[in-house]
Design goal:
By secondary structure, the protein is of the alpha/beta class. The protein folds into two domains: 117 residues, Rossmann fold; 109 residues, Beta Barrel (OB fold (Dihydrolipoamide Acetyltransferase, E2P)), CATH 2.40.50. The protein contains eight helices and 16 strands. A hairpin with a 2-residue loop joins β10 and β11.
């Protein structure tokens, strides 16, 4: 399967070396490159690659800064001359950290890690990576895995959340996305002023509530997209305290 690759490095020699090493992997196709963080954001958002080889210290923006501005997060292999960023790189679940100068054998080991990650369908970055997107307690954006990529979703786009076993389905106007986190974990990560638990399996975003219909012993919340979310007895007080 062909996969798109982008190379980000402020040194031409660094980009050339990666292209030379990639010649041994005909399914990895270089579709773009950049020599600074600003151009990196543009080229990655435009081509939406599967894999990015990226330097960390670059003019304008660092490699970590670039991650904050991407619409989708591809699989990242960092390539840098500085070893002090290794821990931070793995905290954002980079596939590998190539410390310059590295050999062809070391590069092959990184590609093997990449392929192992893909074959096991591992998540390269946590689905809710607020430590990357926003350092505040409540993130403005979240990352949710879709196939081998991570999709950026503005929290304000979330209409409601439904439990799916140990996972959670996040419903937006763009469609539904499956988070690897359970609904109770998501409840703690989202701002309770907007996101209200109404059922052991449901959280609603008050911004998208069209109306609430009172039933004999419960409520039905009608969302703006037409979905009906039942309020269970144990969570009725969460609705009643909003009533004036």
């Amino acid at each position: 399967m062909m996969q798109k690759v982008i190379i980000i490095d402020d040194e031409a020699s660094g980009r050339t070396l990666i292209k030379q090493y990639l010649a041994d992997y005909p399914t990895l196709i270089v579709v773009g490159e950049a020599n600074n963080g600003v151009d990196a954001i543009k080229v990655i958002n435009e081509f939406k690659p599967d894999i990015v080889f990226m330097d960390i210290q670059m003019p304008g923006l660092t490699g970590f800064d670039v991650l904050k501005h991407l619409e989708e997060i591809p699989q990242i292999i960092f390539s840098t001359a500085y070893d002090q960023y290794a821990l931070q790189a793995f905290e954002v679940h980079a596939i590998d950290y190539l410390l310059k100068p590295y050999t062809c054998e070391r590069f092959r080991a990184a590609i093997q890690k990449l392929r192992t990650n893909q074959s096991q369908n591992l998540t390269p970055i946590q689905p809710l990576a607020e430590s990357i997107i926003n350092p505040l307690q409540y993130p403005e954006k979240i990352l949710i895995q879709q196939n081998q990529k991570l999709i950026t979703i503005n929290v304000k786009e979330i209409i409601w959340i439904e439990a799916e076993g140990d996972y959670s389905k996040v419903i937006t106007n763009r469609g539904s996305f499956l988070s690897n986190y359970g609904i109770s974990i998501l409840e703690n990560k989202l701002n309770a002023q907007n996101f209200i638990r109404v059922h052991r399996s449901s959280i609603i975003n008050l911004e998208f509530v069209k109306e609430i219909q009172k039933q004999i012993s419960s409520y039905d919340v009608i969302m703006q997209n037409g979905d009906v979310v039942r309020v269970s007895r144990g969570y009725m007080d969460n609705i009643k305290k909003l009533t004036y």
